[in-house]
Amino acid sequence: MNRLDNVNSHALSVQNLTKTFGGVRAVDGCFLYVTSGVIAGLIGPNGAGKTTLFEILSGLLSPNSGKIFIGDQEITYLPPHKRVSLGLGRTFQITRTLRKLKVLDNLKLAAQSQLGENITNVWLRPGAVREQERKIEDKALETLKLLNLYKLRDEYAGNLSGGQKKLLEICRMLMLDPRLILMDEPLAGVNPALGEEISEHLKKLKEKGLTILVIEHNVKNIMGISDVVYVMNEGKIIAQGTPEEIKKDKRVIEAYLGVE
Ligand SMILES: Nc1ncnc2c1ncn2[C@@H]1O[C@H](COP(=O)(O)OP(=O)(O)O)[C@@H](O)[C@H]1O
Ligand SMILES: [Mg+2]
């Protein structure tokens, strides 16, 4: 890997990132460059540092050192909401309150929370506010169609199956117009049919121009959908390549595949 790669050509650049917890070097001098418009898989054994890396990327944890860029914009110390407005998307589990809302309202709320309430607009420009609400509703319905949840738009989120809730999480994230999506094990605990469906949705999002970085524990799953696979071990990216290349890489087999 060329560590002097030009950051501009990448959707995401991680440079020499380190995060320690006491004596544990969870992320340890990590370099990672993700090209725009790909589905990139991130695999590695338990404890490799994958989730910690994602928490740092989304701004929930601060690194000890190193830098992160979205495109050519450095985001290393930006708060999470600023990263969201720069196009970084991440799924979160549907919380208790959101379960009491209908599916469509869940999506509308996701978009509104990003806009923020602006009282001046409400008083002075009611027309503009209505127009904005209509746009949000159109976008929500469109997003539900894309992920096959349209029929369930008036259902309470709490009544959805586990798999449908996962799709709803993805829809909520899409309402914020991400260009780069981080997903931590989206296929974990879903049945094979739904896993297949989620994989197809990810491919559709890629066709729309999004870049997707997805952590996956199941090597077979990730090989099927990724353009490029990164292997993390002991806080570092130890290999990257096409799924075919990764399957044959000796370091990968030793660090990971061999112990499966
Ligand atoms: N909040 C934390 N406090 C202390 N140690 C942590 C914390 N989060 C993660 N770790 C440690 O960091 C290492 C990497 O964990 P993690 O990022 O969850 O790995 P992965 O997602 O690849 O399984 C592990 O040794 C884990 O025990
Ligand atoms: Mg993890």
At the first level of CATH, the class of the largest domain is: Alpha Beta
Work out the radius of gyration: 19 Å
Strand order of the largest sheet: 6-7-8-3-9-10
Compute the separation of the termini in Å: 26 Å
Shape: globular
- Overall mean pLDDT stands at 89
CATH topology of the largest domain: Rossmann fold
Main beta sheet = 6 strands, mixed
Query: Secondary-structure element sequence?
Result: EEEHEEHEHHHHHEHEHEEHH
Helix content, binned percent: 40-55%
Fraction in beta strands: 15-25%
General description of the model:
The chain folds into 2 domains: 1-87 and 178-260, Rossmann fold (3-Layer(aba) Sandwich); 93-177, P-loop containing nucleotide triphosphate hydrolases (Rossmann fold, 3-Layer(aba) Sandwich). Helix 4 (103-115) packs across helix 6 and helix 4 runs parallel beside helix 7 (162-174). 41% of the residues lie in helices and 24% in strands. With 260 residues, the protein is α/β, with parallel strands linked by helices. It has 11 helices and 10 strands. Residues 1-7 have low confidence and may be disordered. A hairpin with a 2-residue loop joins strand 9 (228-233) and strand 10. It has a 6-stranded mixed β-sheet, with helices on both faces. Strands 2-1-4-5 form a 4-stranded antiparallel β-sheet, covered by helices on one side. It is globular. Magnesium ion binds next to helix 1. Magnesium ion is lined by residues 50-51.
Q: What is this structure's SSE topology?
A:
Blueprint: E1 10-21, E2 24-35, E3 39-43, H1 50-58, E4 65-70, E5 73-74, H2 80-85, E6 88-90, H3 96-99, H4 103-115, H5 119-124, H6 126-146, H7 162-174, E7 180-184, H8 192-207, E8 211-215, H9 219-225, E9 228-233, E10 236-241, H10 243-248, H11 250-255
Parallel strand pairs: 3-8, 3-9, 6-7, 7-8
Antiparallel strand pairs: 1-2, 1-4, 4-5, 9-10
Bound molecules: adenosine-5'-diphosphate and magnesium ion.
